[in-house]
Amino acid sequence: MDRVFLITGASSGIGAATARQAAEAGYRVVLAARSEDKLQALASETDGLAVRCDVAQWDDQEALVRRVLDEYGRIDVAFANAGFGGPRGFEKGTPDEWREMVLTNVLGAAYTIRATAAPLRESKGHLLLTSSVAGRRALPGSLYSVTKHAVTAMGEAARQDFNDTGVRVTLIEPGMVDTPFFDSPPRIEPLQADDIARAVMFAVSQPPHVDVNEILIRPTAQPG
Under CATH, domain 4-217 is a member of which superfamily? Predict the structure, then answer.
């Protein structure tokens, strides 16, 4: 039976690059994002299943997992990758933007864990979460950094919760990546989305008894 790789935030950047590499590795890929239209070209390219899902909505996450199980009968990898940032400074952005960021980055990741927990236990699968270098050190005035610190803690909390079930948990912590996350090109040579996708595939390709818990990956020129 084909292995199934579910990715939230799959419409661009790290999510899309991971979908391509997972498909090349033989996985059935499930692509989830708020805009199903943006997923259709990638779904055609990867022979994947595109599902509209707002990760901050529990009903959407439940429906996503039901759709995957109805279609494929299993989930082997769940990649909680959906998230976005905002301007630094506690007087920047709007309160509504802050709320959406916290709900997407933190609650959305937690909902993905809850929704996929049973099928991952059944398959002895793999959970991955996208945190950030910003989830290891606080950035000045960055609520995004705060949310990624929460995801970093969530990864370890999930690892302990899944311990001895056969489910592996990996926290992916990228530095500067050239993705649509940035409004202007980075000043240093950044990582590419494919670089992060290779790290994801490295973690999931290990033998079942090997659990790579954290991958912190920076561009060579990134100082902090």
Answer: NAD(P)-binding Rossmann-like Domain (3.40.50.720)
The alpha-helical segments, DSSP class H, found in 172-211 are: 193-204
Q: Two tokens at 137? A: 């050190």
Active site residues: 144
Report the distance separating Cα 8 and Cα 97, nearest Å.
Answer: 20
**What residue spans define the domains of the chain?**
4-217
Tell me the residue length of the chain: 224
Q: Using DSSP, state whether 80 is helix, strand or coil.
A: strand
Sequential pLDDT tens for the chain (224 residues): 799 999 999 999 999 999 999 999 999 999 999 987 789 999 999 999 999 999 999 999 999 999 999 999 999 999 999 998 888 888 888 999 999 999 999 999 999 999 999 999 999 999 999 999 999 999 998 999 999 999 999 999 999 999 999 999 999 999 888 865 555 556 778 889 999 999 999 999 999 999 999 999 999 978 76
